[in-house]
Amino acid sequence: MTDTREAAPPAADGGEPPDGSEFGVGDESGDGPRIEFRGGKWASTVPLVFFIVWAIFQSGVLGIGDTNGLVVGALIGTTLGMFLVRGDWKAYADTIFEGMTQRVAATAIVAWLWAGMFAETLQVGGFVEGLIFAADALNVGAATFPAAAFVLCGLLATGIGTGYGATVAFVTLFFPAGVLVGANPVLLFAAILSGAVFGDNLAPVSDTTIVSAVTQDADIGGVVASRFKYAIAAAIPAFAAYLIAGSVMSGVSLEGSAALRESANALGLVHLLSMGVVILTAVAGRHIVEAISWGLIVAVVFNLLFGLSSASDIVAFTVTESGAFTGLPVVTVGEAAGVGGSLYSGAVGFFPLIVLTLLIVAMAQVMIRGGGFEAIQEFLLNRVATTVRRAELTMVLGTATINGMITINTAAEIAIAPYIARIGEKFNINGYRRANILDANTSALGYIFPWAGGVLVGYQVMVGPDGLGAEYGTDAMVVNPIEVVPYVFHGWFLVGIFVLAAITGFGREYIPDRASEEVSRA
Amino acid sequence: MSVFDKFLAGFSFRGSTPDYAPGDALEVMVTDVEDDGGVGDGTAIARIGDSTLRIEGAPADAVNTRVVVDVDSWDETEHRGVGTYRETVGESAF
C-alpha cells in the first residue's frame, strides 16, 4: 500500500512530549550515574528477577493473591541488589529514588486514586443491583445466564475499571442467583471473568489501561477508542460462545430466581450515565483526572438525588462520642474513630499497588543504570524481533508470558512496559498500537489461569466458612479454578486476536500515521 | 480528529512495508545510524515497519529521538527513502 501524507507535519511537532527523559527510565546512555555490579551488567537484573521469582512463588505456586506480599518481595529484592554493587552503595540508593520519582509512576498513581474513588462510589450507588434488575427484566434463564453475566459484568467492569472489583461483586451477587436458576457454575464463573477481562481492557479508569497508555506516550482516551475494535472483535464471538455453551452445558437443578429479584434495583442503572460521562469525556480528549472527576460528581449527585446511598456512604467521619458535629450527615458515632466512605476506601484500596509500583519502577531503574535493561533489549532486537511482524509477535508473546507468570497483572504490565516501548519504537510502531498489545494480554491473562489474581479473588468469595459454598450448603457454589481455564472465552479470543493482528497487520499503525493527543497538547 | 474517527483509526490490515512520497512530512523515531565503515558518525535511519528512511542532516545524537523529516525521494520497490531532518520534537517513551 502507499502511504502518503500532507506536507504539514503531525500535530505533535509543536511541543515537548511527555517523553522517557521526564520519566527518567529511558536514559540509559544519558546523564545518570552508571552502577557497576559484581558479576557484570546482568547482575543489575537481580532485584527484578528476585521479585518475579517471589511473585511466581507467592501467587503462582502458593496461590496467594496479596499485593502487600509482593511489596515485601520487591523490598527484599531491592535490598539484595545493593550487596552486589561495586564501590559506593550511595549511587544504588540514589537510583532507587530516581526510579521512584519518575513521571510514569506518578501519572498512574494519580489516575488510580481518582479511578478508585469513582469505582467505589458506583458500587455503593447500587450499580450491581441495577444490572441484576436488567437481567431479571430481560427474563434471563439458565441457558442465557452466562452470556448475560458476561455482558453485565463487562459493563460493570468498564464502569468501575477494576476487573477484580467487578469479579467480587458479580460472584457475590450474580453467581449464586445464576446457579440457583440452573446455569452451569463453571461456565458462569468463566463468563464473569470474561466480563472482567473486557472491562479491565477497555475502561478508561482501569489500572491496566492507564499503565498501558502512560508507558507508551499515548493519551488514555485515544487508547480506549483505538482498542475498541479489538475488544469488540473478541467480545462478539465470546458472547456467541457463551450462548452456545450455555445451552449445551447443564447446571444443577435449584430453584431460586427469587434470590435474584431480592437485590434488584432499577435505579442503579442511572450509573450507566456516570460511566458514560467518564468514557465520553476521556475519549473526547479531556485529561483522565478531569474525566473521572466529572463522572464522580455525576455519580455522587445521582446517589444522593435518588437515595441510592447516603452522604455517609460516600464520606464518613466516625467519632466515639456525640458532639457538636454529630448532627452532620457525614459524622457518625461508632465504636472506633476513623474516616470511611466510598471516596476513602476507593482511594485507599490502591495504596498497596501504588507502593508496589514505586518499587518496581525503582528496580527497573537499577537495571537501566546497571546495563541489564540494554543487554536484554539488544538480545531481543538482534536475535528475536528482526522484522516488524516478529517484533509485534515478541511483544504479544512476551507480555502474555510475563502475565501468565505474575498473577497481579498490573505489576506484570509495569515490568514489561519498557521493553514494549523500546521494541515497538525500533520499528516506529505507534504508541496506541503498543498500548493495545500491552494491555490486551495483560487483561486477558490476569483472569484465565488458576493462579491468576482475578480468578483467585472470585474463588475466595466461594470458599471458606463465610463463602458461598457454606452459605448455600452446596458444592455447586464452589468452582475449581482449574476448570474455568478453557471457558474464559473473551480472554482467549483477545489473546488470539492479537496474535492474528501481529501476523496479519490488522490494526497496525506506525508513528508517522498519527500523534497522541497528550503529546500534541503538551 | 473527531471522536468517531478515533474509533475507526487503524481499522485495516496494514502491511509491513509502508511507503511514502516525496513532499511528505513525517514524524518518526530515529532508530539507528547507517554503518559507514567507521568513517564518520553515519547517517540517521528511521526504520518504519520493515521500510527504511535515511535522514540527512540529523544531529549526531538523534537515535531514540522523535524528529520531523521532509521526504525527498522514495523507492516503492525497495521500500526505502531519503529525507531531510527538519527538527527534533521528542524522545523515546523509555
UniProtKB/TrEMBL annotation, chain A:
<feature type="transmembrane region" description="Helical">
    <location>
        <begin position="168"/>
        <end position="198"/>
    </location>
</feature>
<keyword id="KW-0813">Transport</keyword>
<feature type="transmembrane region" description="Helical">
    <location>
        <begin position="350"/>
        <end position="368"/>
    </location>
</feature>
<feature type="transmembrane region" description="Helical">
    <location>
        <begin position="291"/>
        <end position="311"/>
    </location>
</feature>
<feature type="transmembrane region" description="Helical">
    <location>
        <begin position="42"/>
        <end position="64"/>
    </location>
</feature>
<dbReference type="Pfam" id="PF03553">
    <property type="entry name" value="Na_H_antiporter"/>
</dbReference>
<feature type="domain" description="Na+/H+ antiporter NhaC-like C-terminal">
    <location>
        <begin position="215"/>
        <end position="492"/>
    </location>
</feature>
<feature type="transmembrane region" description="Helical">
    <location>
        <begin position="70"/>
        <end position="89"/>
    </location>
</feature>
<feature type="transmembrane region" description="Helical">
    <location>
        <begin position="230"/>
        <end position="254"/>
    </location>
</feature>
<keyword id="KW-1133">Transmembrane helix</keyword>
<feature type="region of interest" description="Disordered">
    <location>
        <begin position="1"/>
        <end position="29"/>
    </location>
</feature>
<keyword id="KW-0812">Transmembrane</keyword>
<feature type="transmembrane region" description="Helical">
    <location>
        <begin position="484"/>
        <end position="506"/>
    </location>
</feature>
<dbReference type="GO" id="GO:0005886">
    <property type="term" value="C:plasma membrane"/>
</dbReference>
<feature type="transmembrane region" description="Helical">
    <location>
        <begin position="101"/>
        <end position="119"/>
    </location>
</feature>
<dbReference type="InterPro" id="IPR052180">
    <property type="entry name" value="NhaC_Na-H+_Antiporter"/>
</dbReference>
<keyword id="KW-1003">Cell membrane</keyword>
<keyword id="KW-0472">Membrane</keyword>
<comment type="similarity">
    <text>Belongs to the NhaC Na(+)/H(+) (TC 2.A.35) antiporter family.</text>
</comment>
<feature type="transmembrane region" description="Helical">
    <location>
        <begin position="444"/>
        <end position="464"/>
    </location>
</feature>
<dbReference type="InterPro" id="IPR018461">
    <property type="entry name" value="Na/H_Antiport_NhaC-like_C"/>
</dbReference>
<feature type="transmembrane region" description="Helical">
    <location>
        <begin position="266"/>
        <end position="285"/>
    </location>
</feature>
UniProtKB/TrEMBL annotation, chain B:
<dbReference type="InterPro" id="IPR055935">
    <property type="entry name" value="DUF7513"/>
</dbReference>
<protein>
    <recommendedName>
        <fullName>DUF7513 domain-containing protein</fullName>
    </recommendedName>
</protein>
<dbReference type="Pfam" id="PF24353">
    <property type="entry name" value="DUF7513"/>
</dbReference>
<feature type="domain" description="DUF7513">
    <location>
        <begin position="1"/>
        <end position="87"/>
    </location>
</feature>
